[in-house]
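Protocol step 4 of 6: structure prediction from sequence.
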Amino acid sequence: MSRTRPIALALTAVAAAGVLGGCDRPTPLVTVSVSGNVVQSEAQSYCQKATTACPSRTTAIKTVSYKFGDSIGIDVPRSIAAGTWLVYAVGPAELQAQPQPQLVLHGTHYASLPSLTLPNDASELIIGSQPFKPSSSNKGDGVWRFTLRQAP
């Protein structure tokens, strides 16, 4: 066996460990706040480059409770705010189709979404740095999902 073969195998193993280890890194946090209650979450899918499908993560979907008339504050990291980011409030039927965003933002890290503008069946808040697609092949920086629950 030549001396270069063990070196090549070792370099391949180190590269593979680096790629696999990259999946364990925390993603940027998105913060949602309603009436003083703050919920932060990592992304459910996240990748650095828009050229490949973002891998899904096992991040639990957090719940955001609101009362009719509340404003829902959304704060994204400045790295996400530097590009275009979108906010969707969708119901179960819209998750199967191509939903339209409630907000499209660029260059700002904070947005307020009045609950009065939410669809009646809104059950999920989705923040994305690319247009959301119902399939798991979202491309772009990331998708953060929150369950919406209207409090009595």
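Step 5 (inspection) to follow. The chain has one domain: 26-150.
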